[in-house]
Each structure stands twice: as structure tokens, then as C-alpha cells.
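Lecture notes, part 5. Sequence design as translation. It can be helpful to think of inverse folding as translation between two languages: the language of shapes and the language of residues. The source text, in C-alpha cells, appears below.
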């Protein structure tokens, strides 16, 4: 009687063993619904492309004042319905990258740090010689014609705007050409009469 019970128990276990082996058979599980379900669970969803911000950059160029300092200029255009403010700029081109502007102090034009430059909704703002601009101090490499400088513009709620700026050391010099009183008037209008970025920061002008 005991022998019959043992054989019966073994007979009952055989179908369960077969099912367990089938469940762990790589050949069967590779195409089974369980594997497909796990694959679907572990496949990351494709990230949606980031929406383009309202700011576009045109007419950008950079130039050096001397071996230690330089600057970048450009026009920012805001296609949005709210004003955007340029809060700062980052780059590996120099040890310090800051926003600066010119200020008339007692008839003497001086360059001072700028907290931010506002680009009005539906309008534009120029970072130009004699006005607001991006200042490089402690250049990590020379700014040679034909090179480029990678900048990231921090516009707060309007986003981060990466821009590659070509180096053109002759750009913007036309405003100072002409000689005589006419040339001086042009230079004064540009805010660079007898002064360059290097001179404003205790460096010799280029």
C-alpha cells in the first residue's frame, strides 16, 4: 500500500516538473508573451524634442582687445509675447565671462558690469561696441581670426541659448574709421572714443 502511494505521488509530480522546465526553457521564453511584456516595460520612452525658445541670435562675432581680454557682440531677437532678460553668459574661452556696458561718468566713458540686458517682446536688443556686450577676461587661448567661441546665453525663463560665435578681429572697426572730426564723432557715438576693452580694465589696447 505504501509502495502504491509513493508511485502515485511521483506520477502526480511529473506533469508539474514538465511545466517548470518549459517555463524556464530559453528557446520558448525568448519569443513568449512574458519576455515581450518585460521588454515593453523596460524600453524607455522616446523623449519629446525640446521646444524652440523665443530668442534668436544674429550678427554675432568675437574679437580680442589684447592677449588677456576680448569681447563678443550680437543681436538678440525675441519672437515671444513676453520680454526676456539676458542674465549671464558662460564659456570656456576665458576665466571670467561677464555682461558689461558703457557708462558716462563725468564725461569719461567707463565700462561697468551689467546685471542684465532686456530683450522686449517682439523686439530686439543689440550687444554692440559702445554699449552692452559680453566681456572675456583672462583668455584661455588667443582669439585668432577664423576661430570660433562657444557661448551659452542664460535668458532665465526664456531658456538657455547655445551659440557659436566666429572670431573676426576686424569687425566693428568701420565705426572708428574716417579720421578727423568725423572719425572722432563716429567713435564717440560708438562709445569707444579713445578707449577699448583692454584700456577699460587696466590692460593695453590692441
Amino acid at each position: 500500500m505504501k509502495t502504491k502511494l509513493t508511485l502515485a505521488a511521483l506520477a502526480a509530480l511529473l506533469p508539474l516538473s514538465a511545466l517548470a522546465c518549459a517555463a524556464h526553457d530559453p528557446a520558448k521564453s525568448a519569443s513568449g508573451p512574458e519576455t515581450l511584456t518585460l521588454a515593453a516595460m523596460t524600453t524607455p520612452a522616446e523623449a519629446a524634442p525640446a521646444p524652440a525658445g523665443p530668442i534668436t541670435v544674429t550678427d554675432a562675432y568675437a574679437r580680442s582687445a589684447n592677449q588677456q581680454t576680448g569681447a563678443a557682440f550680437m543681436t538678440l531677437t525675441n519672437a515671444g509675447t513676453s520680454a526676456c532678460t539676458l542674465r549671464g553668459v558662460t564659456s570656456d574661452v576665458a576665466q571670467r565671462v561677464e555682461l558689461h556696458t558703457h557708462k558716462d561718468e563725468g564725461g569719461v566713458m567707463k565700462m561697468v558690469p551689467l546685471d542684465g540686458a532686456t530683450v522686449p517682446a517682439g523686439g530686439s536688443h543689440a550687444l554692440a561696441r559702445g554699449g552692452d556686450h559680453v566681456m572675456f577676461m583672462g583668455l584661455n587661448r588667443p582669439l585668432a581670426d577664423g576661430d570660433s567661441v562657444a557661448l551659452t546665453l542664460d535668458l532665465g525663463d526664456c531658456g538657455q541659448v547655445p551659440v557659436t560665435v566666429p572670431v573676426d578681429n576686424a569687425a566693428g572697426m568701420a565705426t572708428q574709421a574716417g579720421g578727423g572730426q568725423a572719425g572722432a564723432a563716429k567713435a564717440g557715438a560708438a562709445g569707444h572714443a579713445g578707449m577699448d576693452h583692454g584700456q577699460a580694465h587696466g590692460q593695453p589696447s590692441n
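The translated text above is only one of many valid answers, since several sequences can fold into similar shapes. The chain has five helices and eleven strands.
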